[in-house]
Amino acid sequence: MRLSHWSWIILAASIATQAHAGQEVGDYRGLPQDLAAAATAYDLAQFKSDRAELERLLADDYTLAGSNGRNQTKAEFIADSTAPGSKTTYVAITQQVSKVWPNGAVLGGMVDAKGSDRGKPFTMRARFVDVWAKRDGRWQVIFTQAHIAP
Which residues form the DUF4440 domain (predicted)? Predict the structure, then answer.
């Protein structure tokens, strides 16, 4: 699996409880309702490789600091996330963390994931953190740090 795509899988972040048929959404109890809704939408957008939702939920100045030591822009991340033959089939989050303040939040944890990257199967474990900002009344991810864990 390409390392930049590993970072995409890590972004499937904050996913903790199973919703249905292999799709999972985060456990966002205790978060402001609008942030919880945005985080759930982001989880599902990544799980479904939904380009339009990713465009909406990632800030234009978004940066992914991935495990490969390389930063990705919003456009690069979306291209990797929606590449043909790439699909996440399982994601589980443990050790979830959330820190919220007016107009900002950090959501993170440990992620275990399985799926395919451009048709090749993968399994991985990583630690991630997503930084959210509320701009013009809507929540968007502005930064993600992700690294592969043993």
Answer: 36-141
Whole-angstrom Cα distance, residue 16 to residue 119?
Answer: 25
Q: What angle do CA 150, 79, 113 make, to 5 degrees?
A: 30
Q: What b-and-e string marks burial along 86-101, b requiring 16 or more CB atoms within 10 Å of the CB?
A: bebeebbbeebebeee
pLDDT surpasses 80 at 26: no
| 22 pLDDT higher than 70 | no
* pTM score, whole prediction: 0.82
Give the CATH number of domain 3-148; options: 2.10.109.10, 3.40.190.10, 3.10.450.50, 3.40.50.261. 3.10.450.50
Q: Is 78 exposed, middle or buried (0-12, 13-18, 19+ CB in 10 A)?
A: buried
In sign, the C-alpha dihedral spanning 38, 79, 49, 126 is negative
In a 3-state reduction of DSSP, which class is residue 67?
coil
Tokens standing for residue 81: 């996330």
